[in-house]
Design goal:
The chain has 113 residues and is mostly loops. It contains one helix and three strands. Strand 2 and strand 3 form a beta hairpin.
Length: 113
């Protein structure tokens, strides 16, 4: 006599539609995946447009940007958008041309002097 008992009394026995692990067997059709969350921070500044073509509208200047291949175009627009209150200017300040002049008491004026 086996110490395991009768296999028919086991809760893990095979039944129609179930395998040994008691997980339902799929009939070859994959279950649809839930929709992905928008993980990009660009979505904090854009609103998705309805329609066949994937477009989003800037919340600051109302420009439409395509996002079919990702949100990099939206991120680029945010850096350039003049109405975006979070844009950090990354340009160097303009000079008045005085940088090419020599200061009194300075020896040598650089190239060509």
């Amino acid at each position: 006599m086996s110490s395991l008992g009768d296999p028919m009394d086991s809760p893990l026995r095979e039944t129609a539609g179930h395998s040994i692990s008691t997980m339902p067997v799929a009939s070859g059709i994959a279950a649809p995946l839930p929709p992905r969350n928008n993980r990009s921070t660009a979505w904090d500044h854009f609103t998705a447009e309805t329609g066949e073509e994937k477009k989003a509208r800037c919340n600051y200047c109302d420009t439409q940007i395509k996002y079919r291949d990702g949100t990099s175009g939206m991120q680029t627009h945010l850096k350039r958008c003049k109405k975006n209150p979070y844009t950090v200017p990354n340009k160097r300040p303009r000079t008045d041309g005085a940088s090419s002049q020599t200061v009194e008491g300075q020896v040598g004026g650089g190239v060509g002097s």
